[in-house]
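TA notes, week 10

Several of you asked for a full example with nothing omitted. So below is the full record: structure tokens for the whole chain, then the designed sequence directly under it. When grading your own attempts, check the secondary structure regions first.
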């Protein structure tokens, strides 16, 4: 997993204020609702803290955020409304004044973190950095070794599809550049064995967002999860636009025309797997 986010933190955070990012946030809140009360949460690829502190608001007992980007980690620390400790162990030792902490690490490599196993492992836009089946398996092994028996892994992914090219073409057709989906659009750089290699771009007043990632076949995600040891229930969700956005009451500036397209062509998948 690269540190390409080091240079795009400010424009990326700007993009994450768009309607589709806020809708994603609402979808995750709904998905986690049965699992997060009093949970100890491990957040992989936590970025600048888009979700981190809200896990506590939703009922989590503690959160450990992990990311490879020191720029993102420092911004997440600074943006916290709760006191933040200096070591991951401090979060997990029962100190109520330190419910959130951060660890600089590569989430693509299997590593047991301090305080494991956790009740919930969460990763927004994590799995799309696996270039192939082997890389994806390493990510799922990292998830498995840090998740307790009966715990859940929840992730925001690229749209689940057996033919990623068809999915990408559909998105470009209904939400073309330059606005795309909430200010981001992407195109295929080349095919890879298990899917496609993409470039993602967005324009903001704070600069451009530019990064590369992958969209692998849906079955590859499922097979890797099972091989890594996540043997429980596996299910997929998709973009669900809350009614208040469709009534024109939602934040983020999306047009009704854009919002309606998400019912036909999802912008992301929501993967939930039980260990």
């Amino acid at each position: 997993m690269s540190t390409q986010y080091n240079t795009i933190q400010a424009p990326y955070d700007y993009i994450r204020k768009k309607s589709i990012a806020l809708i994603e946030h609402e979808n995750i809140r709904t998905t986690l609702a049965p699992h997060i009360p009093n949970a100890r949460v491990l957040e992989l690829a936590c970025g600048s803290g888009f979700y981190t502190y809200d896990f506590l608001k939703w009922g989590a007992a503690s959160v450990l955020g992990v990311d490879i980007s020191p720029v993102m980690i420092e911004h997440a620390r600074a943006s916290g409304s709760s006191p933040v400790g200096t070591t991951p162990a401090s979060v997990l030792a029962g100190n109520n004044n330190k419910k959130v902490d951060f660890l600089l690490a590569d989430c693509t490599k299997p590593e047991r973190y301090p305080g494991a196993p956790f009740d919930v492992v969460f990763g927004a836009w994590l799995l799309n950095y696996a270039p192939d089946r082997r890389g994806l398996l390493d990510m799922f092994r990292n998830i498995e070794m840090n998740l307790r028996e009966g715990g859940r892994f929840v992730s925001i992914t690229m749209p689940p599809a057996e033919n990623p090219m068809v999915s990408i073409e559909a998105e470009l057709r209904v939400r073309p550049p330059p606005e795309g989906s909430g200010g981001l659009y992407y195109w295929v750089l080349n095919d890879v064995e298990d899917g496609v290699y993409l470039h993602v771009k967005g324009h903001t007043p704070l600069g451009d967002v530019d990064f590369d990632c992958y969209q692998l076949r849906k079955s590859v995600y499922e097979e890797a999860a099972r091989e890594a040891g996540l043997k429980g229930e596996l299910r997929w969700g998709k973009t669900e636009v809350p009614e208040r956005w469709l009534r024109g009451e939602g934040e983020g500036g999306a047009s009704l025309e854009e919002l309606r397209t998400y019912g036909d062509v999802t912008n992301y998948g929501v993967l939930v797997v039980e260990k």
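The first strand starts at residue 40 and ends at 44. Use that as a sanity check on your answer.
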